[in-house]
Amino acid sequence: MVADAAPSQLAAAPSRAPVGLQIRAWLARRAESIAIPVAAALAGFALFGLFLACLGKSPFQLIDIVYRGGFGSSFALGNSLQRAAPLLFAALCVALPARLGLVVIGGEGAIILGGIAAAAAAQPLASLPAALAIPLMACAAAVVGAVWIGAVGWLQAYRGVNATISSLLLSYIAIAISNHLIEGPLRDPTSLNKPSTLPIGDAFMLSPMPWIGVHWGLGCGVVACIVAYVLMDRTTLGFAARIAGGNVRAAQIQGLPVGRLIVGFTALGGAFAALAGFFEVVAVQGTANGTLAAGYGYTGILVAFLGRQNPLAIVPVAVLLGGIEASSGLIQRRMQLPDATVLVFEGLLFLVVLLSETLYGRFKIFSPHLWAEKRETASASAVSVAA
Amino acid sequence: MGVIYVGPKDDYGYNQAHAEAAKALKAMSGVEVTEEERVPETNAVEKTMESMINLDGATLLLPTSFGYYNPYLLSEAKKNPKIQFRHCGGLWTDKDPKNAGSYFGYIAQGQYLNGITAAYASKSKKIGFVAAKPIPQVLNNINAFLLGAQSVDPNITCQVIFTGEWSLAVKEAEATNALIDGGADVVTCHVDSPKVVVETAARRGAFVCGYHVDQSPLAPQKYLTGAEWNWLPIYKSFAEAMLAGKVPEHFVRGGLSDGYVKMSPYGPGVSDAARKNADAVKAEMLKGGFQIIKGPLKDNAGKEILPSGKAYAEKAVELESTNYLVSGVKGSV
Amino acid sequence: MSDGLGIWTVLLAVVGGAIRVSTPFLFVSLGETITERSGRINLGLEGTLVFGAMSAYATAVMSGSPWAGVAVAGLAGGAFGLLHGYVCQLPRVNDVAIGIALMLFGSGLAFFLGKPFIQPSAPPLPAIPFGFWSDLPQVQAALRVNVLFLVGAALSVFLWWAFRNTKAGLIVRVAGDSADAARAMGYDVDRIRLYATGAGGVLAGIGGAYLSLYYPGSWNEGISSGQGLMAVALVIFARWNPLACFGAALLFGGAGALGPALQSVGVSQGYYLYYAAPYVLTLALLILTSSPNRALAGAPGELSLSK
């Protein structure tokens, strides 16, 4: 994809240069990949402020509200982090297959079915101790999710069915199946006006993480992102996947098992997405019901693309999104604006951030070559002086 | 006080009925209303409640959607013992926290009156119901609609179609068309925004009964009447209790006689006879204790619900767990 | 109505449903076909559809003319399309991601501006009663065909013809199959794609107008329920062929009518599974017609989705 061209050149340049220069070049690149999105986010804020000003509202109040509602206090930060937790998993379901060039937009289905699988597994496991039962429930969810999204990969690799459309269709089918199960075979007969599965029981409920007060989905989600990063950027498997994603024919000529890579990475993505549903059940609801279809899967697509399919970048992007959603309430209540305001805000912000990708490499100040060359000429002149 | 809605405030339906009451409350002196719309039934609503308590200083919270109660409202009520929570839906029992409570209206009475006007307007003797999900609330409404119609003509049947979601415009329109294609000539519904059903039915030339709020402007000729919520008396009583430093009632439920449910004005399609009959039944309901479900009554699979001589009056708890459709309703739970 | 009519009722409902429900799918998928044929993908047409629905309804309420609404929806949709087309020609900007952001922005803006128009009634678009020959009201109702449906049908034939036989169609296809070839022929690929995305937006906006001004024929925030996204997916199903888009839209609309129709004749168990019929059917057909050896036939070579 986009990132391919630049790093290969960069990798070539610093290898000839001394360590100090390598670090400089690395820093310059990092500075670029932080400065540009931050500047873009600020520009997005400014644009939305303009929109508000046109409506006669104060743009400065907006900054105050997003700060106070999303990040300014431990309560606000907890609120943001809680909303970010399921997005981490959902975004991985997009980012992992993306390495292989697949655009998977049906993570929602895996989340819902994962939640149902976890809740359904709790019944036969009821006699086991929680320390054993909860991981087994997580496994049940992960297996269902892996099969669901893995099927998308399998269809693409072995039947030639486009992953984007099959994952979207499968997510609608998953919603129908889950509604059928929740209101039919799996329904708890005492769940009257909100059809749900049988509760998993308090013993199987996870308590929140210490200090932060957010459920364990956040901690596990961050770990999952790190694991995914290591897998994709630090292992041969991830490297093979990237080659296959870049050029299928080349990968096949190299003898890489492209089909199995596709199935494996989509299945892993599905398993992660299903864990979002699992945590929704064991840490939040205590039962599976229609609320599992809360749209995390779709928001996850956005998070993954904003994070440029990099698992580590998913974490801050998800927190930012969580913060904006968290401040949505205050935007409504303090500024007397309708709920749709936050959608406009998010849309504008992301448009600008995505647009800013075009700026990479445009500013000389961030160019590692510039830094490396400058130094080289400097040292060259130093040499000549010495001579 | 803080009011929380699951959908947009102006959906011309369920949420709007609440929002209208909340708006009227803003005029009361000493009452400050803070509102948040489109809050999903996830742990997001916990955070909304906490935020209203911590940042807005709300002391009374009114989360208006069913799914907010368990576990979200319960856990917040335990965390904030000084704050009062009143939930729309009738789920509170005395085992739950003492600072929580429920309120709801017997809107099935309105659907019963809808059924009476429908029976007079129907020529095919088939009426239709577009329903979201087969839950007790909805089933009570379907049963009441048909029983009201059968009180006029026992041969009337009612076809029901479930759309499966609370708000799904195209499916609601398709369901309305399917009902009318099946011969129904009066249609009503229980979905979050009845607008689509009302307009589609009127365009097909069928009569229609409204729900949640008054939709008569959408179909002035075809709109018979409608069952509407009137939350203002409840909200007012809550606010007055809070202002007086008292604990608002824990469990408030009522129907027409309490003023929590009201009817839209009759449309031109309602004949004089229908008007007279409906008014007479309404007067009966206003006395309180009206029985819609009374024996002998069978469900549509032939099983007995109630033997002769027994009945569920409006406040009967059994109505909270309805899981049947009465004889004459075509459809299954 | 006797029960003997049961099966006919269902069939009729499916035909009627296909005609009623398919139009938005048709317009959006035709629009997306033009865009994707030029080598770009615009996932944001869901947002364009919703904005089109809102702007059409609002215009019709204020002006009293539904056709003015259709025009405004088309213009607004075109503006969204041009925005997408312009932004995506900048280097390194990902068209899929921009589409998702535009989906959010379009729906958000539509909800935001559409609040005051939820209550008022707008004049609907006219329909032609092709069922006049029948005495059955069901037949008459099923065959009330909206003008936009006919326009869409004609358009799919025209586009099918134009992609093969006109210079403009050929240029778009060349740009989509190989940007280098198009450049070698002296064409400005970015400009072609800009116009193609703009045209796609116009059609998606008109599809939205159909939603709010004819069927279901009202404006509220639940009007679309993902039709725009689904229509984009149908383009792949239809293999970028405008005629196949017409078939796919009809199929999808008809299958969607199956659930309510079956309930109305008494088949009421497991209706959620019937509601999944359009998706299951599409997936099954897709699997049957795909082949691992033959990479998507008809897929534009430059499309990021099909590489």
TrEMBL record, chain A:
One of its GO terms (cellular component) is plasma membrane. PANTHER family: ABC TRANSPORTER, PERMEASE PROTEIN (PTHR47089), GUANOSINE ABC TRANSPORTER PERMEASE PROTEIN NUPP (PTHR47089:SF1). It comes from the Bacteria. It is found in: Cell membrane. It is a multi-pass membrane protein. GO terms for molecular function: transmembrane transporter activity. InterPro entries: ABC_transp_permease (IPR001851). The chain crosses the membrane at residues 34-55, 87-120, 132-154, 161-182, 214-232, 261-282, 288-306, 313-331, 343-360. This is Sugar ABC transporter permease. The keyword Transmembrane applies. Keywords: Cell membrane, Membrane, Transmembrane, Transmembrane helix. It holds the Pfam family BPD_transp_2.
TrEMBL record, chain B:
The keyword Zinc does not apply. The keyword Transmembrane helix does not apply. Keywords: Signal. GO terms for cellular component: plasma membrane. It comes from Methylobacterium gnaphalii. InterPro entries: ABC-Purine-Binding, PnrA-like. This is BMP family ABC transporter substrate-binding protein. Gene3D superfamilies: 3.40.50.2300. Transmembrane segments: none annotated.
From TrEMBL, chain C:
The keyword Protease does not apply. The chain crosses the membrane at residues 6-31, 43-61, 67-87, 96-114, 141-163, 192-213, 245-265, 271-288. Keywords: Cell membrane, Membrane, Transmembrane, Transmembrane helix. GO terms for cellular component: plasma membrane. It is found in: Cell membrane. It comes from the Bacteria. The keyword Zinc does not apply. InterPro entries: ABC_transp_permease. This is ABC transporter permease. GO terms for molecular function: transmembrane transporter activity.
